[in-house]
Design goal:
Layout lengths: L1 H9 L7 H13 L2 H10 L7 H22 L2 H9 L3 H25 L1 H70 L3 H9 L4 H17 L2 H4 L2 H31 L7 H9 L3 H10 L1 H31 L45 H4 L8 H7 L5 H27 L5 H22 L3 H18 L5 H31 L13 H16 L5 H23 L6 H21 L5 H36 L9 H5 L3 H29 L3 H29 L13 H14 L1
Helix pairs in contact: 1-4, 3-4, 9-11, 9-13, 11-13, 11-14, 12-17, 13-14, 14-17, 14-18, 17-18, 17-19, 18-20, 19-20, 19-21, 20-22, 21-22, 21-23, 23-24, 24-26, 24-27, 26-27, 26-28, 27-28
């Protein structure tokens, strides 16, 4: 069929025609089994049946595909290209295939014996393989049996391993139990007979572990614990007694005089803090007894040390200012103390208000406390603020050390107040006694400064008792400072000068006030600066009233009043500037000084040149440019000539008189020169204005021109006096 198809596809272009070929293909398709099957299934014959038609089309399409594939075959293409008949070519191919088939059969017959031998060998191999299969199946059976045995041995091994671990765990627990519950004879002898030292601490720790273990609920129910418990209790009581005696003996050593308590605490007691921990766990009543003994002992020790230290330093204390050293208290100048004198033996005048070397205590704020024997040997007097700084520094160092020891040894610092309470109270009481009798405002402000520095140093240390102490000190010292300042204000306010006019020299109240304000302003305590400013404003108001209303008004003339105020105001300004304490006070008194200087200059010139000054002030409005002629006619030209002649005759004597008055009024060289320059300069201005009036009154020159003193001549004389003053 395939050969026929190929022959038909190859010769389609030659024979038969296309219609004939199509008819042949249809007939061939109808004879195809699939077509016949489709026709039989439909139950109808002929070409009209749809199923048969579909089958026919499918067969034709397959045949077209086969023809297309055959046409692409190389052998078919070669035959067609040669013009050969495909039927002949097919017959040749079939002949070739039959020849090849015959040759293959001949070769097979030729090799039949070899194939028979090969068949025999294959059968023998099959027998060998059957034997090997039987052996391997035997091995498989044996291996299965061995595997079961190995599995059994593994299970047995795991079971034995579990039993071994359980026994080891039981052995470990039992061994630990025995080790912790059994008390060796050596431990008994060591607890009862060994000396209490560093090694004894190890024995106590072993006993502590055994007693603690015996108290466990899981241990207490065992019979072994019931047997050993009485022995452990005896050892506990014995060790507690020995530890109590040891610690109380060591605490008792702290009472010995000249004992360095910190060395004893750190090198002895802290080394045995484990003994105290044992008492805490197993003898709380004895623990409380030891703690009470320590706190009582250290309280008395610290109190004695603080008392001795303060007493020793107070023996070097400089006597503080008293109530006799208030600003307006009477000044005892040149007075010699005697048996019947009423002058207080400790009145110090200006020294009570000067800061001076007392400032050094601020620079020493971070230095260690004074060593009492060295200070006593040196014998240098100490102000109370230096004593307070040293005592507070010592308290702070010792309290910090004690707080650290209590925390390390006892586990807390609950006893700190009991240990240091009396010492702090004594220091506070000593401060109160000093403040009650002190009228030292500068010292109080220094104490505030020192106390602030101590509080800052204490801020990083957890000592609440000292924090309360420094807070209380701040309140006490500031309260006393305000009381002292109020007393100063009251003394100035109540001061009444004697009946006679005082000298124009600076008054001692102004001198004291200047020193006091300079000292207070120099300290610059930021925490109290606003309150201090309010107090000082009240004080300067009272001082100003005293100088300007009660002292100055005792002088009959404005010139002397002004001279007194200038001397006092200048003293205040100069002192504040010299001490580097400029502030509100210096600004205020500088303004007052400028005002009073103007008054003095005018009054000094009015004394010798009053007529000329009055004439100038009266005539200037009449001779101003643009004034009506009738105003110029009112000027007394005769008086003008008289004043010119008089000034010409007396100008040198007048300048000398000014010089004498300034010398007598102002002993301060710089101040006197400044005032003299101002007076002479103002004199020159008045005389210049007078000459301007003369020129306006006599446009063509006055008839008394020969009596007019030239300005350069007057200026030369003024320069001469200014240089020689």
């Amino acid at each position: 069929a395939g050969s026929g198809a190929r022959r038909r596809s190859c010769s389609a272009s030659q024979t038969p025609p296309r219609k004939t070929l199509s008819r042949q293909r249809q007939e061939s398709a109808r004879s195809h089994p699939r077509f016949r099957s489709a026709r039989n299934c439909c139950g109808m014959g002929g070409e009209a049946a749809p199923a048969a038609a579909d089958a026919l089309r499918a067969l034709l399409e397959e045949e077209d595909e086969d023809l297309t594939g055959f046409a692409e075959d190389a052998a078919v293409q070669e035959a067609l290209s040669c013009g050969r008949d495909l039927r002949e070519h097919a017959e040749e191919v079939e002949s070739s295939l039959r020849a090849v088939e015959r040759e293959s059969i001949a070769d097979y017959i030729k090799e039949s014996e070899s194939l028979a031998g090969l068949h025999t060998q294959i059968r023998e191999c099959d027998g060998v393989l059957d034997t090997m299969e039987s052996m391997l199946r035997g091995f498989q059976s044996d291996l299965a049996s061995i595997s079961a045995q190995i599995k059994y041995l593994q299970d047995e091994s795991l079971s034995m391993n579990v039993r071994l671990r359980n026994r080891k765990a039981a052995e470990t627990q039992l061994s630990s139990f025995i080790t912790q519950i059994v008390v060796p004879p050596e431990l008994i002898s060591q607890i009862c007979e060994a000396e209490v030292d560093a090694s004894y601490l190890g024995y106590v720790q072993q006993l502590d572990a055994k007693v603690s273990f015996a108290k466990l609920e899981s241990t207490a129910m065992t019979s072994a614990c019931a047997d050993i418990a009485p022995e452990l209790e005896k050892l506990r009581l014995k060790s507690v007694q020995r530890i109590r005696d040891f610690l109380l003996e060591r605490v008792g050593r702290l009472k010995r005089r000249m004992t360095n308590t910190q060395i004893l605490q750190n090198s002895v007691l802290l080394k045995y803090k484990g003994l105290y921990a044992f008492l805490q766990s197993h003898a709380p009543d004895v623990c409380a007894e030891v703690r009470e003994a320590y706190t009582t002992t250290m309280s008395s020790v610290y109190l004695a040390k603080v008392r001795d230290y303060l007493t020793g330093l107070l023996s070097l204390k400089v006597e503080p200012p008293s109530k006799s050293d208030l600003l307006a208290a009477e000044e005892w100048v040149g007075y010699t103390s005697s048996l019947f004198s009423s002058k207080p033996s400790h009145a110090r005048g200006d020294g009570a208000f000067k800061l001076g070397e007392r400032r050094a205590v601020l620079d020493a704020a971070g230095e260690p406390p004074l060593v009492l024997p060295a200070a006593q040997q040196e014998g240098k007097p100490l102000h109370y603020e230096a004593i307070f700084r040293s005592a507070c520094t010592l308290l702070l160092d010792v309290a910090s050390s004690e707080h650290s020891f209590l925390t390390s040894f006892f586990g807390d610092a609950d006893s700190f107040d009991h240990v240091f309470g009396k010492s702090i109270f004594f220091a506070m009481e000593n401060l109160e006694q000093h403040l009650v009798t002190s009228w030292d405002a500068v010292g109080c402000l220094l104490l505030v400064h020192v106390n602030t520095a101590q509080r800052d140093a204490m801020a990083a240390r957890p000592v609440p008792l000292l924090a309360n102490f420094f807070a209380r000190v701040q309140v006490l010292v500031w309260s006393r400072f305000k009381a002292i300042m109020e007393a100063h204000v009251q003394s100035v306010s109540a001061f009444m000068p004697s009946g006679k006019a005082p000298e124009t020299a600076p008054h001692y109240v102004a001198r004291r006030y200047a020193e006091l304000v300079a000292s207070l302003r120099s300290l610059k305590v930021a925490s109290v600066e606003p309150m201090l400013g309010s107090i000082l404003r009240v004080l300067w108001t009272e001082v100003e009233k005293l100088l300007s209303e009660r002292l100055a008004r005792q002088h009959p003339t404005l010139k002397h009043q002004a001279a007194l105020l200038i001397n006092n105001y200048d003293l205040v300004v100069h002192t504040l500037a010299e001490r580097g304490a400029r502030g509100e006070e210096s600004t205020h008194f500088e303004q007052l000084l400028d005002q009073v200087k103007t008054v003095f200059v005018e009054e000094q010139l009015l004394a010798d040149n009053g007529k000329m000054i009055s004439f100038v002030k009266q005539a200037e409005p009449l001779l101003v440019p643009g004034a009506p002629p009738e105003d110029a006619a009112k000027v007394d030209k005769g008086a003008m000539e008289h004043l010119t002649r008089e000034f010409y005759d007396k100008w040198k004597a007048g300048i000398e008189a000014i010089h004498r008055d300034v010398v007598q009024s102002f002993s301060n060289f710089k101040l006197g020169m400044d005032i003299l320059k101002q007076v002479l300069t103002q004199l020159l201005l008045y005389y210049t204005r007078f000459l301007d009036l003369v020129k306006q009154a006599f446009p063509h020159g006055p008839p008394f021109a020969q009596y007019i003193l030239s300005i350069p001549t007057l200026m030369n004389e003024i320069k001469h006096f200014s240089r020689n003053f």
